[in-house]
Amino acid sequence: MDSPSHTPVPAGQIPSIPTHSPANTALRCCCGRNDCAFLESNNSALEGLEKDLETAARLGQVR
Hints:
1 helix, mainly alpha
């Protein structure tokens, strides 16, 4: 089995990973409803994750 050739990507064309999302970005469901149960669940989970990340960042600065 032949492996595909690897062509390096020029440095100017390498996509970067965003370090933060814009403050005005709101999650929207594909169904278009603002009261979607799945959307509400995802928002709740993300809020919890954000709090955990903030706590971890504060604890990491203590060291």
